[in-house]
UniProtKB/TrEMBL annotation:
The lineage of its organism: Bacteria, Pseudomonadati, Pseudomonadota, Alphaproteobacteria, Hyphomicrobiales. Involved in beta-(1-->2)glucan export. Transmembrane domains (TMD) form a pore in the inner membrane and the ATP-binding domain (NBD) is responsible for energy generation. PROSITE patterns: ABC_TRANSPORTER_1 (PS00211), ABC_TRANSPORTER_2 (PS50893). One of its GO terms (molecular function) is ATP binding. Keywords: Amino-acid transport, ATP-binding, Nucleotide-binding, Transport. This is ABC transporter ATP-binding protein. SMART domains: AAA. Coiled coil: none annotated. SUPFAM superfamilies: P-loop containing nucleoside triphosphate hydrolases. Residues 5-232 form the ABC transporter domain. Gene3D superfamilies: P-loop containing nucleotide triphosphate hydrolases. It holds the Pfam family ABC_tran. PANTHER family: ABC TRANSPORTER ATP-BINDING PROTEIN, HIGH-AFFINITY BRANCHED-CHAIN AMINO ACID TRANSPORT ATP-BINDING PROTEIN LIVF.
C-alpha cells in the first residue's frame, strides 16, 4: 500500500527548544498507529508538529505527494488532517449541529453519518457546546474532525479525564472508525493496552525519539516491552550511611 503520511528527519519543538531531534515515520493508507510513551516523551509534540502548530526546524512532512511543512494549520486541515487536540477545541457557544456544520468539507462523512456513529450527539443536537459533558464534548470533537472528511484522523489522548463507562463508549466508536471504516489515524495514548486493540502498529517515544516500533499484536503478546518502556521506574535509594 502507498505511503499516506511520511515524516523524514523531522526536527521540531517549541520556540527555540528542540523536543523531536530527528523523527522519521511512515503511515500507510488505512493504517492506524498508536503513539505511546511516558509523560513528556514528546507524543503531543509529534501530533502538534504534523498539524503545524510547533516550530519545525528541519526535515519534511508529506501527505501523499503534498509537502505539508510549508503550510499553516488550516491549510493542513483542508489538505486532509483531522485533528482532535487534547483540549477538544469545540465551539462552546455554538450548538452541536452548528459545530458539526461550521467547518465541514463535503464528502463521505456528513451530518447523517456523524449522527449514526454518535446517536448521543443527535439527541443533543440543539445544545450548546458548553452544555455538554466531557464525554459528549469528546464525541463532538471527533465527529467535527470527521466532518472535514480527513485522510488521517489525529487524536491526542481521546480518553483522558473521562469516566470509565464513557471511555468504553469512545473506544467502541474509535474501533468502528479505524477497523470497520478503515480510516487512517494516529492516536496518542497514555494507557497502552487500552488502545492497542484498535490499531495496527505502535511506536514508543522517549525524549522525542522512537525507541521501539512494533505491531499492536506483538506488543499485546509480549508484556515486557511495554513494561520496559512505559512503567515509571522507582528510584532505588542506597541505604543511608551511618557514622
Ligand atoms: N508549549 C510548550 N512550550 C515549551 N515546551 C513544551 C511545550 N509543550 C511541551 N513542552 C515540552 O516538550 C516535551 C514533550 O512534551 P509533550 O507534551 O510532547 O509530551 P507527551 O509525551 O505528550 O507528554 P504528556 O503525556 O505528559 O502529555 C516536554 O519536555 C515538555 O515540557
Amino acid at each position: 500500500m502507498n505511503s499516506l503520511l511520511s515524516l523524514r528527519n523531522v526536527r521540531a519543538g517549541y520556540g527555540r527548544a528542540v523536543v523531536l531531534p530527528d523523527l522519521s515515520l511512515e503511515l500507510k493508507e488505512g493504517e492506524a498507529l498508536a503513539v505511546l510513551g511516558r509523560n513528556g516523551a514528546g507524543k503531543t509534540t509529534m501530533i502538534d508538529t504534523i498539524v503545524g502548530v510547533t516550530s519545525q526546524f528541519g526535515g519534511t512532512i508529506c501527505l501523499g505527494k503534498r509537502r505539508l511543512s510549508d503550510l499553516g494549520p488550516e491549510q493542513r486541515a483542508r489538505a486532509g488532517l483531522g485533528w482532535v487536540p487534547q483540549e477538544r477545541n469545540i465551539f462552546r457557544s455554538l450548538t452541536v449541529e452548528e459545530n458539526l456544520t461550521a467547518i465541514a468539507i463535503p464528502g463521505a462523512w456528513n451530518l447523517k453519518r456523524a449522527y449514526e456513529l454518535f446517536p448521543r450527539l443527535q439527541e443533543r443536537r440543539l445544545n450548546l457546546g458548553n452544555q455538554l459533558s466531557g464525554g459528549e464534548q469528546q464525541m463532538l470533537a471527533i465527529a467535527r474532525a470527521l466532518m472535514l472528511n480527513p485522510k488521517i484522523l489525529l487524536l491526542d489522548e481521546p480518553t483522558e479525564g473521562l469516566a470509565p463507562i464513557v471511555v468504553d463508549d469512545i473506544l467502541k466508536i474509535l474501533l468502528k472508525i479505524f477497523k470497520s471504516e478503515g480510516m487512517a489515524g494516529i492516536i496518542v495514548e497514555q494507557h497502552a493496552r487500552r488502545i492497542l486493540r484498535l490499531v495496527d502498529r505502535a511506536i514508543i517515544l522517549d525524549r522525542g525519539t522512537i525507541v521501539h516500533a512494533a505491531t499492536a499484536r506483538e506488543l499485546l503478546e509480549d508484556d515486557s516491552i511495554l513494561e520496559d518502556h512505559l512503567t515509571v521506574k522507582k528510584k532505588v535509594h542506597a541505604p543511608r550511611q551511618t557514622l
